[in-house]
Design brief:
By secondary structure, the protein is an alpha+beta fold. The chain is built from 7 helices and 2 strands. The two termini are 49 Å apart.
């Protein structure tokens, strides 16, 4: 009885090793993390982008609003409550006005907009990365199945499904799956 138990354990262990060795055949393909990074880069939902927006929104308050005026001809001499006096001339006049909104150094409404957009992008990023992982592992399961049962009646359908998942992943990652498989 002990011999049968040991034999069955050895069989299970060798089967498990064989199953894992199948995965070695896919070493030439990009990892799921490679594809997720490529998808995030293509969709422009990287966290660095959001950090940059927030930094720039904070720094923008230090810059003045500029107003430049250039004119010729009619100029205002005086401005009183009941009358305005103007003069006509052929001289050119120019003025530059700089205004700082120092209250924006403490709180800038653009930071709120950037934060909302950051939350929206984080949700989109999470959905995208989850979707890429789901597609990647669905494809991998079909590939393993195709190696384990190459002559199964559903082999053609399985091959089409693998091609379909490859095309979807390539679309989400700017062909990172196909390019990565060719370069490794």
């Amino acid at each position: 009885m002990k011999a049968a138990l040991v034999a069955s354990l050895l069989l299970v262990a060798s089967t498990a090793r064989a199953d894992l060795s199948i995965l070695e055949r896919f070493r030439h393909e990009p990892t799921v993390h490679d594809l997720q990074r490529a998808a995030a880069r293509l969709a422009e939902v990287e966290p660095a982008r959001v950090r940059s927006w927030l930094r720039r929104a904070g720094k923008a308050a230090m810059l003045p609003a500029l107003r430049v005026r250039v004119g010729r001809g009619l100029t205002e001499l005086t401005h009183e409550v009941d009358a305005q006096l103007y003069s006509t001339t052929d001289d050119w006049s120019a003025s530059i006005e700089a205004t700082w909104s120092l209250d924006r150094l403490v709180f800038d409404r653009n930071e709120v907009y950037a934060s909302r957009e950051a939350q929206r992008l984080a949700g989109h990023r999470e959905e995208l990365l989850t979707r890429v992982a789901q597609l990647y592992y669905a494809r991998r399961r079909l590939q393993v199945e195709a190696l384990q049962q190459p002559d199964a009646p559903a082999a053609i359908d399985r091959a089409l499904q693998i091609d379909e998942l490859t095309a979807v992943l390539d679309g989400l990652t700017d062909n990172a799956l196909t390019k990565g498989s060719q370069s490794r």
